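User: Teach me something about this protein's shape.
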Amino acid sequence: MANRNVTCKVTLYKKQVRKLTDAMVPALVDTAELLMEEVRRADVIPRMDGPLEDEKFFVDKTEAKNGKVRLVHEGPYARRLYFHPEYHFHKAPWAESIKRKDGRVSNVTHDGSPNARGKWFSDWLSGGKKQNFAQKTFNLFYKMRAGI
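Assistant: First, the predicted structure itself:
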């Protein structure tokens, strides 16, 4: 066999590498925030008064620099509802009368979530009908932020 010499020169453009690296964390956070909005719009979260999909639902960005973000539902009842779909999920609006301490009766109305169910993230997880949403969204945000 003939002996062949092969040479290769690699030039790293530090400015471009830094731009690509710096785009990852914001793209990850943007992806999580858009996923949260997507889940809200799907009306799959059980809804009575709304805190489970409003102020008690947020993106935890504390480990974003390590490549991790989490969608969090605050409150112990979120876990119960998520893993126990046998509970009533208030799929339709309804009204009820509540007797107050002073003896008066208040009529209360609630908005429902028509697609409410347990394990409401399942469409976006592996095997779900929207399983590629996060990856595709991250790719778009990353390209946009990196200027690719």
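Now, about its shape. The mean pLDDT is 85. The CA atoms of residues 2 and 54 lie 70 Å apart. If you'd like, I can walk through any region in more detail.
User: That's plenty for now, thanks!
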